[in-house]
């Protein structure tokens, strides 16, 4: 298992391609994981509002990287390099895009962790599993 830090999907695709080439040359199997935080709400506006509020409260200076990926929002709290910020449907689609790029495992984090775990577990993961055709529920 090779775990990548949060980055735009196009960067993940490039990294996966390079890692697969190296794994094939070495005759080794490879799985790709992605460490990323999530901030998902009913609407994109609500998610952005909460992300900005969190940044103000913690004095972080986040920057929007690409397609809902914010950098520097929760780094000091969770250690993740980026946060997916958006509506439940947007975050689900972003995770599906990462899966299509070759990511098979996700290490998801959030602040506050308990409340966000409920939101993601109830509103994002079931739809993502259905979209990807996964029936097994795995969690760590």
Concise synopsis of the structure shown:
With 140 residues, the protein is α/β, with parallel strands linked by helices. The chain contains six helices and six strands, in the order βαβαββαβαβαα.
Keywords:
TIM Barrel, 49% helix
3D architecture notes:
The protein is of the alpha/beta class. It has a single domain, classed as Luciferase-like domain (TIM Barrel, Alpha-Beta Barrel), CATH 3.20.20. The protein has helices spanning 9-26, 44-58, 75-78, 88-100, 113-123, 125-132, and strands spanning 2-5, 32-41, 63-66, 69-71, 82-87, 105-109. Strands 1, 2, 3, 4, 5 and 6 form a six-stranded mixed β-sheet that branches. The relative contact order is 0.19. The model has no long low-confidence stretch (mean pLDDT 89).
Intertermini distance: 15 Å
Order of SSEs: EHEHEEHEHEHH
Domain module count = 1
> Which structural class best describes the helix and strand composition?
alpha/beta
Shape: globular
Helix content: 40-55%
Produce the secondary structure layout:
Layout: E1 2-5, H1 9-26, E2 32-41, H2 44-58, E3 63-66, E4 69-71, H3 75-78, E5 82-87, H4 88-100, E6 105-109, H5 113-123, H6 125-132
Parallel strand pairs: 1-2, 2-5, 2-6
Antiparallel strand pairs: 3-4, 4-5
Helix pairs in contact: 4-6
